[in-house]
Amino acid sequence: MIAIKLEKNHGKLIIITGIPGAGKSTLAAKMVAQGQADCFFEADQWMIDKSGNYLFQQDKLKYCHEKCFSSVYDALRKGLTAI
Which residue from 25, 32, 41, 56 has the least number of CB within 10 angstroms? Predict the structure, then answer.
């Protein structure tokens, strides 16, 4: 885990890396639930269909990464700790 502190009055970014299925999302959710972070984002959040099912779409990948980046950026600007 890498924690990066930005400028004064900005939030903190925690980056979790690992192979698929290693439990990154589970760890991030647990950290939020325990108050160790305010929110977490992952590109997969934007690949959920209207029924709530995960549906990987290669053509949507760039959009998902851009949404994830902008969400993290907004959280950090608000002074939140984001994963």
Answer: 56
Range of the domain at 6: 2-82
How far apart are alpha carbons 58 and 47 in whole angstroms?
10
Taking the CB of residue 18, how many other CB atoms lie within 10 A of it?
10
State the average pLDDT for the chain: 90
Task: Tell me how many domains the chain contains.
Answer: 1
> What's the CA gap between 40 and 14, in Å, rounded?
9
User: 38 and 71 in contact (C-beta within 8 Å)?
Assistant: no
β partners of residue 6:
none
How far does the chain reach from its first CA to its final CA, in angstroms?
10
User: Is residue 2's pLDDT more than 70?
Assistant: no
